[in-house]
Amino acid sequence: MRRLTLALTLGLMASTAAHADVTVYSAGPGALIKNLVKGFTAKTGIKANVFQATTGKVMARLEAESANPVADVVVSASWGTATSFAEKGLLLPYTSPNAETVPDFLKTDTAVAQGVAGLVIGWNTKSGTPKPTDWSDLTKPEYKDLVTLPDPAASGGTYTLVEAFTANGMTDVLEGLKDNGAIVAGANKAALNPVLQGAKAAVFAGVDYITMGAAAKGESVEAIFPESGTVVAPRPIMILKSSQNQDDAKKFVDYVLSPEGQNEVAKVHLMPSRTDIKVDRPLIGDLKLLSTEGAPSREEVLAGFKKIFN
Amino acid sequence: MAKATTTGAEGSALLRWIATSGLLLVVAVPCLFIIIQAIFPDIGSGSLAAPFSLFFRTLSDPDLFGLAGNTLLLGVGTVFFAALFAVPLAALRALFKVPGAIIWDALLLIPFMIPPYIAALGWIMTLQPHGYMEQVTGINLAGLIFSVPGIMIIMGLNTFSVVYFVLSRTFETIGARYSDVGRVFGAGQWRSFWRITFPLAMPGLAASLLLVFAMSIEEYGTPAALGRRIGFDVLVTGIENRISEWPIDLPGSATLSLVLVGMALVAFMIQRWLLTRRDYRIVSGKPQASDKRALGLWAVPVSLYFGFITFLATGLPILAILATALSRTISGGLTAENMGMDNFNELLGKGSEGLVALGNSLALGVSTALLAGLLGAITAYSVVKGRGRFRLVLDALSITPNSLPGVVVAVGIILAWNQPWLPITPYNTPFILLLAYICILLPQPVRYATASLHQLGDNLESAARVSGSGPLKAFIRIIFPLILPSMVTSMILVFAVASRELVASLLVAPIGFQTIAVYIWTQFDQGSAGLGMAMAFCAIMITTLIPLGLIGLLRWLSKGQVAGLN
């Protein structure tokens, strides 16, 4: 009991002593934010504390804390959060000197992409099915009952793809998937897991870095960029206006956009947002991108998807 | 409950005061903020603008009917399967000399220790096409597991041990003695069981089935893992989605939580009504001989039956967890070259991170068990033996968190404890997790203590008062030792759940503070399912061995004097 009290007291002291440091709320991947913080502290001597969860959980915590905000820097996996925060006037305008080579569509006055994820077909190479090359391949009889897709309500990336399909009149592919017995299986990981074990052959609208990460671990899965084009999901990093620690928060953003920081981004198979960082994987410039211009509102896109899959 | 005849057993004012202030701090404060959140959508930023603007919109959502109906269906179905698995086992265990009874008890403790989302994942990986079962036997049961009855069976297997432990203790206390009276008067063995033993066990059965109902309508992991695949959404997944998916809808989730609380309160009223219809007091201070019958020829089939149910509830999930933890890659399957200790080496050799998380969770689990157990016993005592209208308020307040999803408790706690005007706050320290866990788990010790207090005659306490002890002393010296066996069981349950709680921990954990569940979740999120399962396996082993050691120690200390521990 005494050791327990000691442990709790030490924990209490540790977390109160940490108040002057930069506090970062980050959506996954956990390894990336851990290495970024490690590198940042080594370079600047400033400590950083991390709360890591999904984009939704990070946003829920920010919303519940809004009377008395704790975070200085927020990293999300959905660009829409940055737009919405900016509209509510929650963000500190800042343009990092390291953001010069970041393309314009990946930065605003108040946010800049930490890295970019692409949407792919995640295909199990040992599934005994032919290798798909385009989205519509998965509507063929060879893939009957063998396809999963993440729920666009739970996965920002899948949402953007469905949005683009809606804008480009490609929803017949989604209908074909439904007719072919594809199932909607929760968030990104829940959709990939059955493919790894072989219960399913492919994820439609998988996230590239997650699929590549699994392949790097030795799983028999491959990330395929479809011929007809795909969408990307930039991951915004932003500083809250309420931060008591704005100078250090800016230094953190600078570090993330420095060559060292961008190399950490590349290590987890994300595309770096800076165009002058060279890595061994398809980059934004190499991808054929589908436009989401002319897409209806989020509610309508999701309602259209639900209509097909229910 | 024969209120009029209580003599000097009306409870101590000090205990009542402790129960009231404890419940206010731990339960009422976060609940109040959830209600405020449901009414005032912008309370998070300290504004009272636009009251009720979202409240009625959420309640008039046509989906709500479906969600509420599914929740009810799932709750009732789970209770059915839990009772189906538990009642025969408990009756056999309590009334007969079952071979290896203590071993079965120990094995049936393990389902408490397996996080439900991990168990669900284990079942999926075993039964789906190309899963472990198909790899071993060539057949898969995907049709069963991805169905509504499949979800009910799995949740029944996860929860039936709650009923088993309460009921076997209750049957044991009733003993064969009462039914012997029936048999003397000519009733057959079955008849005396159904007419005497079973009705007298009603408080235990009702309390534990209510607990299962509340646990299953509040459970997130299993419906999320299995239900989402077949479009079976319940209130909790609806609430969780509103909090976890951008754009966040805190007022909507708070409103849905109130619907869920309403459901649990109705179940609670039904339980009260059942209990107050009759007098269930069976512990009168007379010495009781515990005389169990021998099974004779039936020993083998009974053992096989115990073995079968235990394998489904404990063996299969553990084997699936172990298989995943030992696999280098998931796509590699169950082949010799894909098996290795890599994940365990990484977990234990990586230095600290996983071990720190283990330490944190164990410390929090033990503190929660002690504090919740104490507060629960005091609350139950004030409710059962006290007088006045406040009893109902205390009782209702103590069951409320049972139906609040962890994620909503977490939001209520953040709203309550992160106010800028608070001079000192546990927020962002490990104490906030302690508060959250006690709030979520308090209903368990309260239910267990209430059930055993209902069986305690007032005359024991009256005797103590007549012999000159004050109400406090009577509680400590007479009541507390008598309800201790039930309390130990419930505290083990609290310890097990607290040390693996996920949804609330994920949201309110202090920055940089990891618990077992958060660690496992992070591993899954990074695609290291094997490492997560290795941690889950170690955590299950540790959280099982600690309570077992504790029970062994208690038995040794009490030398069998405390009933129910054997």
From TrEMBL, chain A:
What are the boundaries of the signal sequence?
1-20
Q: Does the keyword Signal apply?
A: yes
Annotated Fe cation binding sites = Y209
GO CC, alphabetical:
outer membrane-bounded periplasmic space
Please verify whether the record's keywords include Nucleus: no
Q: What SUPFAM superfamilies does this protein map onto?
A: Periplasmic binding protein-like II (SSF53850)
Coiled coil, from the record: none
For this protein, the record's Gene3D superfamilies field holds: Periplasmic binding protein-like II
Q: Which domain of life is it from?
A: Bacteria
What are its GO biological-process terms? thiamine transport
Which InterPro entries did the record assign? Ferric-bd (IPR026045)
- Recite the UniProt keywords alphabetically: Iron, Metal-binding, Signal
What's a single GO MF annotation on this record? Answer: thiamine pyrophosphate binding
Q: What name is this protein filed under? A: Iron(III) transport system substrate-binding protein
Automatic annotation (TrEMBL), chain B:
Keyword Transmembrane helix assigned? yes
Where is this protein chiefly located?
membrane
Gene3D superfamilies assigned? MetI-like
The places in or outside the cell where this protein is found are: Cell inner membrane; Cell membrane
Q: Which family does it belong to?
A: Belongs to the binding-protein-dependent transport system permease family.
Q: What protein name applies here? A: Iron(III) transport system permease protein
Gene Ontology BP annotations: transmembrane transport
Spans traversing the lipid bilayer: 14-36, 72-95, 102-124, 144-167, 193-217, 254-275, 295-323, 362-384, 396-418, 474-496, 502-522, 534-557
How does this protein sit in the membrane?
Multi-pass membrane protein
Q: Does the keyword Cell membrane apply?
A: yes
| Swiss-Prot/TrEMBL keywords | Cell inner membrane, Cell membrane, Membrane, Transmembrane, Transmembrane helix, Transport
The record's section on InterPro entries has: MetI-like, MetI-like_sf
User: Under the cellular component aspect of Gene Ontology, which terms does the record hold?
Assistant: plasma membrane
Q: Which residues form the ABC transmembrane type-1 domain?
A: 68-271, 358-552
CDD domains membership: TM_PBP2
